[in-house]
Amino acid sequence: MHVSSGRWQFGLFLALITAVLWGILPIKLKEVLKTMDPVTVTWFRLVVSGGVLLVYLTLTRQLPALRPIGRRGAGLVLAAVLGLTGNYVFYLIGLRMLTPGTTQLVIQIAPILLLLSSLLVFKESFSVGQGLGLAVLMLGFGMFFNQRLAELFGSLGNYTTGVLIVVFAAFIWTAYGLAQKQLLTQWTSVQVMMVIYLGCAALLTPWAHPLEALQLSPLQGWLLLACCLNTLVAYGAFAEALAHWEASRVSATLAITPLVTFASVALAASLWPDYVHPENLNGLAYVGALLVVSGSALTALAPSLLRSYRARRQRLADT
Q1: Is the CA virtual torsion 290, 144, 260, 229 positive or negative?
Q2: What is the CB-side half-sphere exposure of residue 192 using CA atoms within 13 A?
Q3: Which of 5, 33, 48, 197 could bond 228 through an S-S bridge, CB–CB 3.0 to 4.6 Å?
Q4: Containing domain of residue 96, as a range?
Q5: Which of 77, 54, 28, 68 is nearest to 200 (CA)?
Q6: In a domain, 2, yes or no
Q7: Domain count, the chain
Q8: pTM score of the predicted model
Q9: Three-state DSSP class for 35?
Q10: CB 172 within 8 A of CB 83
Q11: Closest by Cα among 122, 97, 111 to 177
């Protein structure tokens, strides 16, 4: 079992870097999607990230051995590739229909779905605190969509379709997360990501249109490069954060990602109003967003907090 290094300050720093990078990512992607299709944008992100990891693992002589994983491992790789490819593409399709903040908030259900799936697949426990966190999260979603509940449930318009597509992307990501969790028992996180990135890129190649990059404006070209590097650096910081801090606390820190997106959209809209439009939300919706973040954090932290509480009670009982 992995044990963190104990350098929690460094782990917190890396988790915050990941949250910021993931938070600003949909803003950059939204601008690139004005010219490129979601499949091609995803293909570029995966080729660049997977290529960099391939070069790194080749130079350090750490390329993964494929033979020992067997047929079951190959099935897990296929599931992870299909899951991450579907997640990336459908997330971008949804982002085209929604604002960056709404998209980032809806995708927040992905780790919750992974937790619930782990209860069935890995027989993990589910505490009362996690149930409370889930209830807070659902209440937050209801408050966030308060302005568009009639549209959301009354018709299948562009907005509702976008939300459903992002929810579907979250479900697909869950399959990827479960498969990757099993692959980590045989390969390192860097090896797993290289195989998955390159596998996803190969899968998308027949539908990608790389020449669309020539139609990008200079600004969009730089943003596409930033998106590619964001994928690489954010996941690298996330993996390294897990090496220095408890997974539950890293997950709780990453729950602030939607808030980073909302703040970034507000800042970008004030600086570049021709490119970024502000979120059209009322006060109740912003309170709902805070509740979604709080519910996600509580769901992630509940087991760790319960263990700490029981340990303190045991120490008091022993004294």
Answers
A1: positive
A2: 24
A3: 48
A4: 8-318
A5: 77
A6: no
A7: 1
A8: 0.85
A9: coil
A10: yes
A11: 111
Structure tokens at 178: 């479960």
Which tokens sit at 177? 């997360």
| Cβ 100 vs Cβ 27: under 8 Å | yes
In-domain check, residue 3: no
Q: Which two tokens stand for residue 216?
A: 């990008």
Contacts of 219 (CB under 8 A, 6+ apart): 31, 275
Q: Is residue 309 part of a domain?
A: yes
CA dist 179 and 202 (Å) reads 19
> How does pLDDT run along the chain (319 residues), one tens digit per residue?
444 556 767 878 888 998 899 999 999 999 999 999 999 999 999 999 999 999 999 999 988 877 667 777 788 889 889 999 999 999 999 999 999 999 999 998 887 887 777 777 766 666 777 788 889 988 999 999 898 877 777 777 888 999 999 999 999 988 887 787 777 777 887 888 899 899 999 999 999 999 999 999 999 999 999 999 998 888 778 777 766 776 667 777 888 889 899 999 999 999 888 888 888 888 899 999 999 999 888 887 777 776 776 777 777 777 6
Question: For residue 126, which amino acid is it?
Answer: F
